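Minimal example, chain plus alpha-L-fucopyranose.
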Amino acid sequence: MLTLRYDEPAPSWEGHVLPIGNGALGACVFGTLETERVQLNEKSLWTGGPGSAEPGGSGNWSADRPGALEAVRRVIDERGSMAPEEVAAILGNPSYSTVGHIPGFGAYQNFGELLLDVTGGFSGGYRRTLDLETAVAAVTYEDADGVVLTREYFASYPAHVIVGRLTARRPGRVGFTLRFGTAHDGEEEVTAESGRLRVRGVLADNGLVYEGQVQVLTEGGTRSDEGDRVVVTGADSAVFVFSAATDYAPVHPGYRGPDPAARVTAAVDAAARRPYAELRAEHEADHRALFGRVRLDLGQRMPDLPTDRVLAAYEGAGTPSDKALETLYFQYGRYLLIACSRPGSLPANLQGVWNASNSPPWESDYHTNINLQMNYWPAEPANLAETAVPYQEFVAGLRAPGRETARSMFGSAGWVVHSNTNPFGFTGVHDWPTSFWMPDAAGWLVRQLYERYLFDGDERHLRGHAYPAMREAAEFWLANLCPDARDGSLVVSPAYSPEHGDFTAGAAMPQQIVRDLFACTAAAARTLGVDAEFAGRLREAADRLDPGLRVGSWGQLQEWKADLDDPSDRHRHVSQLYALHPGTQLTAPEHLAAARTTLEARGDGGTGWSMAWKVNFWARLKDGDRALAMLSGQLRASTLPNLWDTHPPFQIDGNLGATAGVAEMLLQSHAGVIELLPALPAAWRAGSFDGLRARGGFTVGVTWADGVPVEVRLSSARGGTARLRGPGFALDLETRAGESCALSPAR
Ligand code: FUC
């Protein structure tokens, strides 16, 4: 039973509302009784960028700074390190230090709320649910006369609308006034005509035009427009369909497209013409086609309790109830990714698509020093490849502005982006000392474009999409690596390990990213049969590159090239383990041991996403019990009643990273073989899953008992050899495209 369930309305937005979404549109259901609140989002409703009241939207230096980079490199060579504040003063763009924010960067905005003042009163029987299998949120209760009333909400991807329906067990009992709760007072106009509320606004900051429309339809009773409201009385049932859009377009440098009115009108008109049952069936089929691909059975049993109480009672002790929460949380990550990332809109931001503030934490932006990447970790292994299309397009869209940044700041070819970006191609820098500088972020971002090819073998994607972005990111580093004064190896300088320590030359994470980027790009060139000379240059540079893998004095994997690590440091970023996960180059036994020592020292604490990353790290170290301990820690310490991850505050990356981590515990395929149950915790002794994906176009299911697979189900999309490995067995299986089979490895 994959349902979130509560016996009271959401007391507040964060951590209590039920999120639904179709990628572009999001809605948060409060389920409040007298005035129902459905908080709305449209993912491109952003301040900042072109037209913004504050100039400086690209983050590029406004004038050349001849010799600035070289000066920083020189100081680092002389002193060995440089404080982030010093570097930010030389290479940053005045922003936090002067005006307290990044000028022109903007922030993701709240769209407003649909408010329904509901008649009929309340006498009991309250329940609020979110069914992950159908992606329908529902509220039921009894009115003052004991009549059961039901509200149902879903966000349809095919119809591009959010739909709500109110019904009653007795005819004539549905009544409400629908109004719009503004989040942009003075910037918009609300009108009502023929049961349709229309909101049209222009953001004062940047002139972005937005529009939302909601059409109310009734069966029985009356419907009337009253000013900027629609009033329904005595109906048997009522339906509303809502859609919204802006004139944002993901096209550099203007980032504007056509007026949204026609699109919104067309979506609402089309949906309003169709019967509710048909819209719902279409939505359900669309959602199930994605969500239904993966099944996970750990022998769980969900107690007959509200989800917040199940969460509060969670112990991580391997009880059927604990397992029920673990499987629910895994599947919830898949649900959330489907709801906040579908083709045709921007990728999932720090809060997916759900945001009730106009000044959300970190602008609810795209952080590229872990968070955006983590959002998409589950896409391939948890069988939701389609959800990563917005990510792939977004990364492709960063190339044009990122090329300007590479040219203007580094005087080189290639493209870069630093620690955080927005929908308007911010690829330059600000001056928050510990997070303004990360030219290696592009190399990390493109790894996931290549992963898509590794999973599904689609050469068109590799040729048209992944490889060009990888090649251009690699070009940047061919031009920007420096010979290290200490040993002549090629290093990144200035180099920064995200949000931690001083600037140095050759910090582990940037070295590992560049090494991985060169290896993946050269491999992709060979697969495509292109760029032999360029690939040769990459291999040559890779031979001279410091690999960023070094065991330090206390057995740790060094975060910096010099042995600076402090064993009592508990910092949440463990960037030096990039090569363990998501990278694949940390394989030598001494490095694996050092990675373990580092993780032990950092401890099992951390913010939400940090714990989720550690689930993945421990899974790659094949330690299922530690991976589960991290997952349990996240459920106990960083999970809100509606199962949103909290950093704090709410941040979606932890949800999505943990879902990827669970997939990683059950199946791994990064090392050229398909490993079944590579990090199975003792508490998950028996179980089964279906539908997880392995690189090479394979879909895998396993049933296991006593930690050992008793049946393996495999289907092959492209044919080829499936090199299956599991506890106690190894089998290389030749497959044909389209073939499925089941094996019993034990026999
Ligand atoms: C990274 C993290 C922070 C936070 C922010 C949004 O910079 O270091 O903890 O998650 O992203």
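The first strand starts at residue 3 and ends at 6. The mean pLDDT is 97.
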